[in-house]
Amino acid sequence: NPTFPSTKPKILVARAIFPEALAKLEESFEVCSNQSDKILTPEELQKALSEVEGALVAGSERIDASALSQATNLKVIANISVGYNNFDVPAMTAAGVMATNTPDVLTDTTADFGFALLMATARRITESEHWVRGGKWDQWSIVNNPLGMDLHHSTVGIIGMGRIGQGIAKRGLGFGMKVIYHNRSHLSDADEQACGATYVSKEELLRTADHVVLVLPYTTQNHHTIGAPEIALMKPTATLINIARGGIVDDGALAQALQEGKIFAAGLDVFEGEPQVHPELLKCRNIVLAPHIASATEKTRRAMVDLAIENLCAALAGKRPPSLINA
Ligand code: DGY
């Protein structure tokens, strides 16, 4: 019997995804898939993109003019991530490539994690565990146990008040916290009321918050938006939580502040140059470290993959993807 070349559109799946999702894609597409999960080099990515009409990628793939330079048939790149600082959106638009992300489906999961990281940091949970495992716990003590900072009836300051920031605020309200926020723009009155949140300047937030939570998108303009001068404004009893992106915080300055007791503690899910972690941060006692897992629940990661696939399929069917960035 003669064999005919596949007429299915070719797509790239740049990172490992759930096997059922991959099988579903294979029904409609000729899939070039990197299930090894080893991040493609820029050269490998450029070559792979030159051969396909669509691609599913994650934050690990930098999509810029160079990555797109040979991608003559490419119509869409769907990020399996809400943050899209790995995309050079103007370059994608110039190349006629649709860019999409995965908003909404991860909001509550990420806000849950942000709150968990805040609690673990303020109440010294991982440090306490090391203490117990290290055999240092010899008796209950009023003063000689790891004493933390309260969340209830404290002030949480949220920088970046998008969907996830608002999710943190609502969780804070449940703990009787006062919520202040700083954002590019004010929320509507209705949204401020729903979050019980008051807008303040960044300086006032840093000066008055007991807990500062960073949930803003990373752009070149807000690189190191929290560095030594900003940390110096914070209370010595304050905590700093970063579930946004590495690069927003100057990790070297933070490590120094933690070592010198300028602030009480920090909880970090994201790092400059991750998966590398600044060596001075690793030396700090008063820190909780996580490997960029704020959206990592089984259900949410499946929902993110499904939404990315929906975006890709819509674009390749000539329709508007539900979460198109470069509209
Ligand atoms: C997101 O969706 O932006 C998460 O941080 C994973 O990259």
Overview of the molecule:
36% of the residues lie in helices and 14% in strands. It has 327 residues and is an alpha/beta fold. The strands form 2 sheets. A 7-stranded parallel β-sheet has the order 8-7-6-9-10-11-12, sandwiched between helices. A 5-stranded parallel β-sheet has the order 2-1-3-4-5. The longest helix has 19 residues, at 298-316. The N and C termini lie far apart (46 Å). 42% of the residues are buried. Bound molecules: (2R)-2,3-dihydroxypropanoic acid (DGY). (2R)-2,3-dihydroxypropanoic acid (DGY) binds next to loops. InterPro entries: D-isomer_2-hydroxyacid_DH, D-isomer_2_OHA_DH_cat_dom, D-isomer_DH_CS1, D-isomer_DH_NAD-bd, NAD(P)-bd_dom_sf. GO terms for molecular function: glyoxylate reductase (NADPH) activity; hydroxypyruvate reductase [NAD(P)H] activity; NAD binding.
Features:
13 helices, 2 domains, Rossmann fold, five-stranded parallel β-sheet, 36% helix, binds (2R)-2,3-dihydroxypropanoic acid, elongated, alpha/beta, NAD binding, seven-stranded parallel β-sheet, 327 residues
Could you outline the blueprint of secondary structure elements for this entry?
Blueprint: E1 10-13, H1 19-28, E2 30-33, H2 42-50, E3 54-57, H3 65-68, E4 76-79, H4 89-94, E5 98-100, H5 107-122, H6 125-133, E6 155-159, H7 163-174, E7 178-182, H8 189-195, E8 197-199, H9 202-208, E9 211-214, H10 228-233, E10 239-242, H11 251-259, E11 265-268, H12 279-282, E12 287-289, H13 298-316
Parallel strand pairs: 1-2, 1-3, 3-4, 4-5, 6-7, 6-9, 7-8, 9-10, 10-11, 11-12
